[in-house]
Amino acid sequence: MKRKNYKTRLWLTALAAVSIGALFGGCKDEFEEVLGICPEVESTNPDKDAVGIQLNNEISVTFNEAMNPASISPGVFSLKVVNASASGRMAIASEAPEEITGELTFEEETNKMSFKPDVDLLPNTTYTGRVEPVVADKMGNVLQAAYEWNFTTGVSPAVTSTSPANQANGVPLDQTITATFSTEMDASTITAASYKLMAGTTVVTGEVTYSDNTASFDPENDLLAATTYTGTITMEAKTKDGIPMAIAYNWTFDTGTAPRVLAIDPLDLATGVSINKIIKVTFSEPMEPATITAASFTVSNGSTPVSGTVTYSESTAVFTPAESLLVNTTYSVSINKLAKNSTEVSMAQDFESKFTTGNSSIPEVTTTDPADNATSVALNKAVMATFSEAMDHATITESTFTLTQGNTAVAGTVSYSGATASFKPTSALSANLTYTGTITTGAMNAAGAGLAEDYVWTFTTVAMGVPAVLSTDPMNNATNVALNKVVKATFSEGMAPATITGNTFTLTQGNTTVAGTVSYSGTTASFTPTNPLSYNLTYTGTITTGAENVAGTGLAEEYVWTFTMVPPTTPEVLSTDPMNNAENVPQNKVVRATFSKAMDPASISGMTFTLQQGTENVSGSVSYSGTTASFTPASLLSPNLSYTATISTGAKSEEGVALESDYVWNFNIENPVSPYFVDLNTAERFGIFAATGVSNNAGFSEIRNLDVGISPGVRTSVTGFPPAIVENGAIFASDDVSPSGVAAMLSKAKLDLTAAYLFAEGATTPAPATVEGDQGGKTLAPGIYKSTSTLLIQNGDLTLDAQGNPNAVWIFQIASGFTTVGGAGGNIILSGGAQAKNIFWQIGSSATIGDNTKFHGNVLARTSITMNSGATIVGRLLVLNGAVVMTDTNTIERP
Known about the structure:
Layout: H1 2-23, E1 41-45, E2 50-53, E3 59-63, E4 77-84, H2 86-89, E5 102-107, E6 112-117, E7 125-131, E8 147-153, E9 159-163, E10 168-171, E11 177-181, E12 195-199, E13 202-203, E14 206-211, E15 214-219, E16 228-233, E17 249-255, E18 261-265, E19 270-273, E20 279-283, E21 297-301, E22 304-305, E23 308-313, E24 316-321, E25 330-335, E26 351-357, E27 365-369, E28 374-377, E29 383-387, E30 401-405, E31 408-409, E32 412-417, E33 420-425, E34 434-439, E35 455-461, E36 469-473, E37 487-491, E38 505-509, E39 512-513, E40 516-521, E41 524-529, E42 538-543, E43 559-564, E44 573-577, E45 582-585, E46 591-595, E47 609-613, E48 616-617, E49 620-625, E50 628-633, E51 642-647, E52 663-669, E53 686-690, E54 693-696, E55 702-704, E56 707-710, E57 718-719, E58 725-727, E59 731-733, H3 742-762, E60 769-770, E61 773-774, E62 779-780, E63 783-787, E64 791-793, E65 798-801, E66 810-814, E67 818-820, E68 828-831, E69 839-843, E70 846-849, E71 854-861, E72 864-867, E73 872-879, E74 883-886, E75 891-893
Parallel strand pairs: 2-8, 10-17, 19-26, 28-35, 45-52, 53-56, 53-73, 54-57, 54-74, 55-58, 55-75, 56-59, 60-63, 61-64, 62-65, 63-66, 64-67, 65-68, 66-69, 67-70, 69-71, 70-72, 71-73, 72-74, 73-75
Antiparallel strand pairs: 1-3, 3-6, 4-7, 5-6, 7-8, 9-11, 11-15, 12-13, 12-16, 14-15, 16-17, 18-20, 20-24, 21-22, 21-25, 23-24, 25-26, 27-29, 29-33, 30-31, 30-34, 32-33, 34-35, 36-37, 37-41, 38-39, 38-42, 40-41, 42-43, 44-46, 46-50, 47-48, 47-51, 49-50, 51-52
Keywords: Signal
Family: Belongs to the ice-binding protein family.
Signal peptide: 1-25
């Protein structure tokens, strides 16, 4: 009991000392353990306002003097979350609790109180540590006031790019797979456990390495052809500060198909092959020519390689031996995996084939022209035979190459070129007779070997009759013939072209010969007058008996026909689209004019069909079909302006008759937009435009049918692409050197965005309606809505009702910040024909699009825009001075 009383008195004494100290200005600690001197926090770990702290960091507080361990109990210290990033929340299954649980300990030797959280801290999150004013030193002096300090954990790393890229196709089979991180990683965490490659459910074995922020996976064996692979970086991968990935990163790619050998000549295991054989290999698909070489295509005799040249064309590789092959010898043909297709995919396996040459080099006749038993052979035919190899031209003569009809020798001359011998008869062959060609064994190759036996073949000449004119164009007695008509005559059979000339095919007008040129093709002769024919006159065409068939037989009698030129009518413009003085014509209108008759297409051009706005010509293309000419403007016509279309007298009919006078009509273009519509001008092409940065923190975000731009920021300030993708668009940065003009284009877009922002900010017609606070649950008609501070959409969705007008416009003038809260409310709902492209959110500072918000409209913010997890927008995110941040799996679509 005395011990208890003593403690009570000591406590009362200490309390009294504290009270006295308070009365006289508080503790003045001289770091001596005497009554009246109070403890203080000397240091903390982490330091006050420290950033980039590891997630498994132990929190500690060191006091300036020895403390009473009994006063260090769980209630004297707390650790709480100030804010948590969306990526931090994604690291756990539910929202982080307000206060962090853990174990509190005290070390008397160092005066240090330590707190070990039960679980790792969240990334990119600010925490507050607090020491309550109840801890006491060994004399009973307590901390005079609660001590608080903040610190922030590090940011989770992200995969900024991969090779191959996500969804890449035709990837080579020897590809090394790489993933590049947004920050320096702990190399010891980049292992086969954190970096995996799968083919379906099969794990691919390989070596994992790390260097310069890039992890590399080198497969142990080549990848499989035509296979989909999935790469994965797990949350076991950590930064050098121990910060893990927020979520696992996955990407896929497909390997290309492996080429294969479809055919080989000579065939595998062929025998009796000629010793001057050229070896050919045909592949299943086009190959990369640079890979078809003497290294990938080889021929060998046992272990001895055959010298030769390799060429490649149209999926076929050819090996031409430098010298004749040996007789009665087996050769091996090899195509190895150095041979690759056009997408750099190797053959799945080496190809091997064998063939054996014949006992000797015996030449053969491989083809003849005409072929054996051919019929209907032309009477002026030169007879040819092609050999299996080069022959001694001295042995190819009228003695070894003969042509007979029955027992009668045909006179002619023999020549030889390449591997082909030709027999040219002195006179034309006779019709409807059978001829025999013979190559004797006296025809020898360069080695002196002759054919094994005489080569004999037969053919039959054409059965010739008397040629006749079957038809003419124009027909006999035709009228209304075009002045530029080409006169034609078609024969009953093939004619000798040399007999179809200006002497045998004439055109006259009365006794006057018409100048022109004659040509022949197929079975048709054509007469093209030098000048157009004349109106209202009759012309006579004549084919004389000098026109002969290939057998030398002429027409039985001259063929004569007549036709008449009748003055053509003058063409007129019957109708136009748009009609003259039409109103509210669409901006994308194709202007058309329909004529009273067929026109000469060559006369319908940009010179004869023009469109003007005032005195300025409109750029466009002109086409003609049927009886209608069309003018397609190169760009949209301007709203609320009048245009003039003209068809000039240069437009002519098929007969060459021009319009009597220029045809002119006018029309007015619609004014489709509200007078207070915000014109984005060249900034309209961008789904994201920022000044300092564009980031995708996590997930497969998509920007669809719009571009991404940053200026004056540079390309390295655009991160998280991939996994984010730009579909039907591109990313442009101010430091891009290709294509040329990117920097100027972005500067112009920045100026246009600034002008649009200022216009939206200052719009006063119609008079703005004042709004403030939460707009959730409301329905707003078209107009201007002004907030003098912040604006919020939280308790319900905001509906914008166009009331049946698809051109209705909304401008929201927000002086400060703008926030939507996703979930049950916070969405933008369109009704009554409202369109997202006509909605403009002008924001004086920054905007936050909440989790899972479905948003519509064009956001024009001065400072920054953040899209929280799962948020989507039909519209644009455009920032003047700062950055655009996509937090996790966001979508931006063209309005």
